[in-house]
Amino acid sequence: MADDGALLTAWRAGDRGAGKQLFERYYDSIARFFRGKIDHGSDDLVQEVFAACVAGSDRLRTAASFRSYLFAIAHNVLRDHFRRRQRVGETVDIGEEATLQDLSPGVSTLRAEAEDQRLLLEALRRIPLNYQVIIELRFWESMTTAEIAEVLRTPHPTARSRLRRALELLEASLDRLGEAPARLASTRENLERWALQLRDQRESID
């Protein structure tokens, strides 16, 4: 299987098939990024991401950062989506402290098979969306802090500190849910495992 670099080089040289392979490789990941964050139209946003990727591919610095480049576009598309809703008169606060619970209160939470997973999902919805995205990139997409920095277009040390802050906010959010201490402790200790299982569940429902 060709790596991203080889496919990107071939795509830039005019090989449309290589571009198609790249998009197919990351379609599920980008779809997962939007799924559960908006009440409808996630497929349109996925298409918007890939259209923007085609239009701006010449600005991609290195082939090795293709995945980060895609998620950076997805992050911008998501925020633009909420800005558009604000412009048409919806009461949507897209400030730094806005949570998914604020932005999409009508979006139903994915049914979790385990109570720990339910707690994690609910806690994520209650922290600022910017930090929720960081946690999803780290634990769902297995990105390094260097890759997260590329997505957020911020210096690497800033990305590291934001990840630490995101985990602190998640911890506080779990505490506010008021569940039994043993249940909360289990959720914290198994964060990465639960996150990966939830990621897989999101993939399986479509």
From TrEMBL:
Keywords linked to the UniProt accession: Coiled coil, DNA-binding, Sigma factor, Transcription, Transcription regulation
Coiled-coil portions: 160-204
Residue stretches making up the RNA polymerase sigma-70 region domain: 22-87
All residue ranges annotated as the RNA polymerase sigma factor 70 region 4 type domain in the record: 118-170
Database matches in InterPro entries: RNA_pol_sigma-70-like, RNA_pol_sigma-70_dom, RNA_pol_sigma70_r2, RNA_pol_sigma70_r4_t2, RNA_pol_sigma_r2, RNA_pol_sigma_r3/r4-like, WH-like_DNA-bd_sf
Short name of any one Pfam family annotated for the protein: Sigma70_r2
PANTHER family: RNA POLYMERASE ECF-TYPE SIGMA FACTO, RNA POLYMERASE SIGMA FACTOR HI_1459-RELATED
Family affiliation: Belongs to the sigma-70 factor family. ECF subfamily.
Protein name (database record): Sigma-70 family RNA polymerase sigma factor
Biological source species: Nannocystis punicea
